[in-house]
Amino acid sequence: MKDMDDSAITRNGNSLILAYDHGTEHGPVDFEPMPKSADPRHVFEVSQHDAVTALALQKGNAEYYRNWQENTGNEGAPLLLKINGNSSLPKREDYYSPKQCSVQYAVEELDADAIGYTMYAGSIHEDEMWKDFREVQEEARKYDVPVVMWSYPRGKGIEENPDYSGQKDPEVVAYGARLGLELGADMVKCKYPGNQEDWERLESQVAELKTVMSGGSKRSDRAFLQDVHDTIEVSGNGLAVGRNIFQREEPGELLDKLEKVIFEGKTVDEAM
Amino acid sequence: MKDMDDSAITRNGNSLILAYDHGTEHGPVDFEPMPKSADPRHVFEVSQHDAVTALALQKGNAEYYRNWQENTGNEGAPLLLKINGNSSLPKREDYYSPKQCSVQYAVEELDADAIGYTMYAGSIHEDEMWKDFREVQEEARKYDVPVVMWSYPRGKGIEENPDYSGQKDPEVVAYGARLGLELGADMVKCKYPGNQEDWERLESQVAELKTVMSGGSKRSDRAFLQDVHDTIEVSGNGLAVGRNIFQREEPGELLDKLEKVIFEGKTVDEAM
Amino acid sequence: MKDMDDSAITRNGNSLILAYDHGTEHGPVDFEPMPKSADPRHVFEVSQHDAVTALALQKGNAEYYRNWQENTGNEGAPLLLKINGNSSLPKREDYYSPKQCSVQYAVEELDADAIGYTMYAGSIHEDEMWKDFREVQEEARKYDVPVVMWSYPRGKGIEENPDYSGQKDPEVVAYGARLGLELGADMVKCKYPGNQEDWERLESQVAELKTVMSGGSKRSDRAFLQDVHDTIEVSGNGLAVGRNIFQREEPGELLDKLEKVIFEGKTVDEAM
Amino acid sequence: MKDMDDSAITRNGNSLILAYDHGTEHGPVDFEPMPKSADPRHVFEVSQHDAVTALALQKGNAEYYRNWQENTGNEGAPLLLKINGNSSLPKREDYYSPKQCSVQYAVEELDADAIGYTMYAGSIHEDEMWKDFREVQEEARKYDVPVVMWSYPRGKGIEENPDYSGQKDPEVVAYGARLGLELGADMVKCKYPGNQEDWERLESQVAELKTVMSGGSKRSDRAFLQDVHDTIEVSGNGLAVGRNIFQREEPGELLDKLEKVIFEGKTVDEAM
Amino acid sequence: MKDMDDSAITRNGNSLILAYDHGTEHGPVDFEPMPKSADPRHVFEVSQHDAVTALALQKGNAEYYRNWQENTGNEGAPLLLKINGNSSLPKREDYYSPKQCSVQYAVEELDADAIGYTMYAGSIHEDEMWKDFREVQEEARKYDVPVVMWSYPRGKGIEENPDYSGQKDPEVVAYGARLGLELGADMVKCKYPGNQEDWERLESQVAELKTVMSGGSKRSDRAFLQDVHDTIEVSGNGLAVGRNIFQREEPGELLDKLEKVIFEGKTVDEAM
């Protein structure tokens, strides 16, 4: 575990990751509510808001982002390169996410500020992913870039286990976070289990490891900010968010509020 | 994504790829309508037309092509080396296309101007192909040669998904194109979904990425040119074509017309 | 087999390994009886007792441990880096434990004093684990660090063999220990088969190889110390223990007693 | 495709390959008709006939051959090292032939004049064999030794395809030969489909690639020579033969005749 | 095939290999008839008899053996390092024997005089073992150490083939021996098929390759010596033996007799 407080992707110890891998993971359907969101340049621009401490991209878009920065002179957010990913097109026996970028390429060619890796613990492919992650983590250490684990336990081991209610089962979410600590991640991105108590339980498993909550279902801005605040209050370190930001007509408004909650220690009332 | 406008395989920003991998993919049966088309030298000669910005070959024919150029003194079209491919002989569990040439060999020994790779998203082997492509793409970057993805979603994930009508489903074609962007291709070659509107939808997913439409079913030259023109009109960048050119007695005639439509901004009427 | 008497993880030829990989192997549930045991720093502190000759950690906690030592100035116990491990989340066809750390990283970056590897002989994945272990053992030799094999025969080959009563069958335990000798481990960690005679049988199979007994079921401190003493008496070399130590309010008391039995040749009565 | 006319394994542009891999492929049973043929030295001696332009051996016999040459002072035929092969002992799911020799070893240690590789297109393992062949072909290029492909389409893809009558189906044989061209072989060894017309069809698919016919069923010497002549007449480049030569009491007689037909342009009548 | 007559593991052209891998292959049960045989040091001592030209060990015991030699000053027999092996604990789909030692480690670190490899032709894993053996054989050549193949055809391909009566079928044994020749071994260790005639058949398949017979069922010393003699008489090169030697109270007596039969050309009557 690295000291993330000096990292390019944190600010006052916390993070707001703007994730834009929907074109890989779900395809064009995700951009339908706001067609211009299919154009990466739109999201690159959104990422310039001060609240964004990292823009998470797959390799192709990361190449494009670096070109865009150079061509436009815009600075944009620090680059969090997602090292693996998958499409929703094939029928897999169970969850798996192959590497589509090497750490070497991410750092040497794309000057990534951090590395992201999705771990599907609970899948029959979990052991293979451990091996993939081992390599990724150690190579990232070599280059001294931090590693964010998208820790998403799922698959047959979760679905078919009567002790678990599903991917948001507090026990499952906490076990996933703990694996981030045990395997050597510097930050974990976890599903919000639904209430502060269960997030606190998760925090109890990871000592000083940085945690960010992952999106969640559609709700009002106030309810959303409240969830973010609730995690911060019990040692959470922020948020990873995608469509809820880049598919707004005025993403700046919500980003302003998130900035207050995540980086300035404000309550929801103060932020609204 | 590289700036392809300076590339050896584009002209005025667009491309016409003459593809000749039928002997690999389908075998002798494809040459029956015009037996001399089985001889690569016939196609090498056709490729000399100014309209052809790339000749796509498998390794063995590429070696032969370089010898032919040297022995005859002919210049021929730039070489687009197809890195993977397969025969139609075995019964596969699902679509897969193994590498038959390394990027190193393609560039160092055969001086390839570009690299081609077929991606079968939707196959149960998709994840393995991502890994193969990762390596190919990064090695191509090292040598600074562009990568063209034959992006052909197919296989059980497409066939057994009731939401999709098949390989030409506009959603499927657009998702395939988007994967080219996300994974770091410099150009995608996609099935023509059948009408301009669906091609435009595809274009909306790939920002500035170059796109070429792939052949399609037999129709009149006018109808064919119209399809090509329709894609160009909505940001398409040209065409990949095979038998429809090299199995004509006078391929130069159609190539003349395609040249006007693809590189000179002419309408079909102007080109005919 | 190395001469372990000079090793950092032995004292007077014996060892007491404090194992803390429960967050990997079983998840948060293992920490419930004593919530603060979920915090690695609690266990790091416990490991400072003189009786502890090695603290066994997975990579992430080992990184954390090295930071903790540096930041607090505490010395702590020698580091035994567990090279492989697994979570209990997926449904595996049979037992397997993937590598989550390379020996190179363990030694060069984490300055590990010893390497630990779990071998599941009897699993359908045993042969694959032999290959993994071969590499681990030879790399450890290169760096001159000793290798401890968690030798735990289990899986279908054990469960479905009517000749065996299970994982603690004396024949199974002894065969597992012997594999440690044959494959080149420097110490084996074996399940206590339940009585001194069966441990003696195990010892007869491993010549001078170091052996440590592994935990066992809950029982009184006296009974526990008696088991430890019984193995020592017949050439055993100590103990690997986890929750039975770090989940006590006052672990020092039992550690004091274990120290007498394991390193000072005391009887249980003398130690109590 | 290399210019094979300068190759060590051709003479006047054609080849006669004496193949001796029966001990690998079929075992002792193949030597029963003439027990002394089980002794490689017998075949080494036969290979000294001027008509033999290559002796095809597996690694072990190739090592033995080089020793024999050194010890006896005999020159023998150029060495064509078979890089892969298999035994008939296991029940495979479908045809596959693993590498038993690296190209590096073949060339650096055994000074091979050419490399041989068996390709089973049509097998479910075809794609894996493409990958194996890719490596073999590119390494052979590095050492500048020619590659002969034993192109034998077979397996479930052929047997279960109602369009094909079997391994000697003219379409299948021609497709196999074409794959030799596409994948970068310098010579293909194909089953004789049974008549000159079908061999001509095969030749039409491979441009200038060298071809040799493979053995065939037992028939009179005249009929056999006629088949060889028929292929030569339509651009064939010779023959690969095994037992029909080395299991004769006087192999020299038939070799004399083959020499006339293959290298001297004689008719069968002239050769008899 | 190397000239083995100069090898460290032959004497007068023949070999007596004392094999001690029973702890790996069968576990403690094999040592029950004579408990002290579980201690490798007992066998190390036995190996000092002049008749023993090689002691075959797995890696862990080989490390121990080298230490024992150094510590005791005993010379012992030349070391034949078994590179692969397996335990009898798991249920495998078919026979396989994974590598537990690299050739590099065997030679560079353990100064092995020869390498041993078990080949299970006839298993569905045969092709994989060919690949493993290829690497082993070529690496051994690099270090100039001879390779002994334990050539034991077995598995489904043998059991389910009605033409074969089992592992000792003379045809099967001879095919196995031939594979040793074809794949580049320097000596093969084969099951004794039961009579001299069948061993002679085996010899007819391997030219000058060294052969040693493998143990066989319990019988009188005279009958055992007769079998050994019968193989020697028809070009056999000796014996590999284990428990029949090291589990005797006075192994020297039988070793004296074997010495006469194997290395001094004596008849059984002369040796008794």
TrEMBL record, chains A, B, C, D, E:
Q: Which UniProt keywords apply?
A: Lyase
Among InterPro entries, the record links this protein to: Aldolase_TIM, DeoC/FbaB/LacD_aldolase, DeoC/FbaB_aldolase, FbaB-like
What Enzyme Commission number(s) apply to this enzyme? 4.1.2.13
Coiled-coil annotated residue ranges, if any: none
Q: What top-level branch of life does the organism fall under?
A: Archaea
Keyword Lyase recorded: yes
Q: Name one GO molecular function term.
A: fructose-bisphosphate aldolase activity
Q: Which residues form the active site?
A: Y152 (proton donor), K189 (schiff-base intermediate with dihydroxyacetone-p)
According to its UniProt record, what is one Pfam family this protein matches? DeoC
Q: Which family does it belong to?
A: Belongs to the DeoC/FbaB aldolase family.
Q: What is this protein called?
A: Fructose-bisphosphate aldolase, class I
